[in-house]
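To the team - nicotinamide-adenine-dinucleotide complex, inputs and output below.
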Amino acid sequence: MNDAPPYRDAGGSILQVRAEGRPEPALDDAERPQPPSRRLGWAVCGLGHFAQNYAIPAICRANEARLAGLISGNPVKAKGVAAAWGVPDRSVYDYSMCGLADDDTVDIVYVITPNAIHEQNVVAALEAGKHVLCEKPFAHDAASARRMMDAARAAGRKVMIAYRAHFEPNNLALRAMVRSGDLGEVWYATSDHHRPIDPEAERDQWRMKRALSGGGSMMDIGIYALNGLIWLLDEVPRTLVATTFSPETADGRFDEVEAIAQVQLVFPSGRRASISSGYVASKKRIDLWGSRPVAVLDPATAYRGNRLVLTTQDGDQFPASAPSEQQFVGQVDHFSRAVRDGIDILTPAEMGLRDMNLLEAIYASASRGEWVALNEDGSLR
Ligand code: NAD
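Output:
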């Protein structure tokens, strides 16, 4: 039979064939993007490898943010990036950030330049009245971190450090397990963060120069081991001893910065930890040696594919987890909410300064060849 109008539903009622406004559907619980007027405008400062491959895509995928501006020392590159991501030419600035103060479309500046350049960029952004997300490490030394915090106080603006692992699902699951006691007693922890430096790569040029990086593998990626263990175990070490090693190579890549660093840490609870960093091998893992399972994050802090394994005498378990890529969007949305709604920042400037203090203590211990005692803020006692 031909299904000609009027159509009828199963109960025999006539179905409307004209366009008709239906009532509001029930909404499910999924987080949805904020409308444009509620999103914070982000400008990215420094358009290098991490900025273009991870930071800008994360801002564009975030629920609470929109890419509103770019800051670069290279106008040709900046123009290309602006065109690719739909940033208007009027919101592209050089590092002087001249004119940024009058740009109401930008609320937050994300600083992604070499470590020793962070201060210049962070202070300029703060003086333009913007809030700042600053890449790790906060600076190349603790004095620079303190000056940035002074500038933030003077400007009445917020600063967050981009410790993305605090937003990574496997890391978050492990932290929850430590807190709930699921690992039993954890009196020992290890973390090793290594990635080969490439003397030919553009992005590694400044890493080999102490004046721009502030240090070698410990400053660059060992900071993940240090910051990660303190966060997971919820205590700051009381004493430490460190050694560093810079082998001679034909290309001179370790002439100014250490290739390898090794640190023994003692925490106020008595817990021991051993961390290492390197610019030779490729591996990033964290092991918490619990009395029930031993928890292993391997990889622990990769951009994608991190994995938590719980090892017991009866075999390995792999807790379900969300994709690691959420970490990038997670930190962008978190800081947007901190600026807009005033929620507490999970990785504040104080944490960045504490880690700079600890890095200085590590290098001091390595150069003196002795154990050093620490204050609660990580500085040398
Ligand atoms: P990169 O060399 O690829 O980018 C650095 C950018 O800064 C370039 O665009 C460069 O032009 C610009 N720049 C400005 N002043 C400079 C100067 N005086 N010398 C050299 N470059 C200068 O480096 P990257 O790997 O993107 O690292 C940048 C920052 O991001 C560093 O602080 C690094 O620690 C951090 N980072 C974080 C992650 C992470 O996972 N969170 C990953 C990589 C890098």
